Amino acid sequence: MDNEKGLLIVLSGPSGVGKGTVRKKIFEDPSTSYKYSISMTTRNMREGEEDGVDYFFKTKAEFEELIKQDQFIEYAEYVGNYYGTPVEYVKNTMDDGYDVFLEIEVEGAKQVRKKFPDALFIFLAPPSLDDLRERLVGRGTESDEKIQSRVTEARKEVEMMNLYDYVVVNDEIDLAKQRIQSIVDAEHLKRERIEAKYRKMILEAKK
Ligand code: ADP
Ligand code: 5GP
């Protein structure tokens, strides 16, 4: 029997809410079978980051060339830098039957929704906007001005919650991780997905 196609899981939400932290926690868990799609970006590498692990770091010219070549499922300009999801890895990995996990900002998630309406969209929300600002300040990777523009952006992003299937509040990292894993597990048990598999089995049995 053919491989069942993997699910596309999109984790999004405001910058500083903890997407990266929760995503890392999910991928540290040896029982996680999803594949993480590493994004490309033109922003500077932060301390402790590695090219090809955290992101594929590109120059603006390289990124714009890839846009021209239609190499992204989605891309967005976010606080002065490009971020994008390479198309090839995602398609091939899903075709191989693996679930693919994207961690992207909301403009990009909107584009994915148009191209992959069957994907699973999860919005990671802060317990409050004050918590969000505190997390950005606590991370210590941005200037005050950048933090302010990220918080302004976050207000708009919270209003975009209605594009999502589920909302997970990131109060505690472990709880957020468990909630996301439960959502993905349940998605695999959706009647439509299971039914399609059984229909195929019945057809093959008739041959
Ligand atoms: P994002 O990827 O959404 O921009 P990060 O993962 O970089 O956000 O998290 C921003 C900051 O918030 C980091 O300093 C991180 O350690 C902290 N953080 C993440 N999740 C939580 C949480 N549940 N409680 C408290 N702090 C958190
Ligand atoms: P950071 O600079 O903090 O790593 O990321 C800034 C924002 O870009 C975060 O919200 C992060 O989730 C998002 N991001 C990371 N990769 C991608 C991507 O491939 N596409 C889009 N649209 N956003 C991304």
TrEMBL record:
Chief location bin: cytoplasm
A Gene Ontology molecular function term of the record: GMP kinase activity
Subcellular location: Cytoplasm
Reaction catalysed by this enzyme: GMP + ATP = GDP + ADP
Top-rank lineage group of the source organism: Bacteria
Classification via InterPro entries: GK/Ca_channel_bsu, Guanylate_kin-like_dom, Guanylate_kinase, Guanylate_kinase_CS, P-loop_NTPase
Protein EC: 2.7.4.8
Key words, A-Z: ATP-binding, Cytoplasm, Kinase, Nucleotide-binding, Transferase
Pfam families: Guanylate_kin (PF00625)
Enzyme class: transferase
Domain Guanylate kinase-like: 6-185
Binding positions (ATP): 13-20
Family: Belongs to the guanylate kinase family.
Annotated HAMAP family: Guanylate_kinase (MF_00328)
Protein task: Essential for recycling GMP and indirectly, cGMP.
Name by which UniProt lists this protein: Guanylate kinase
Protein's organism: Staphylococcus hsinchuensis
Gene giving rise to this polypeptide: gmk
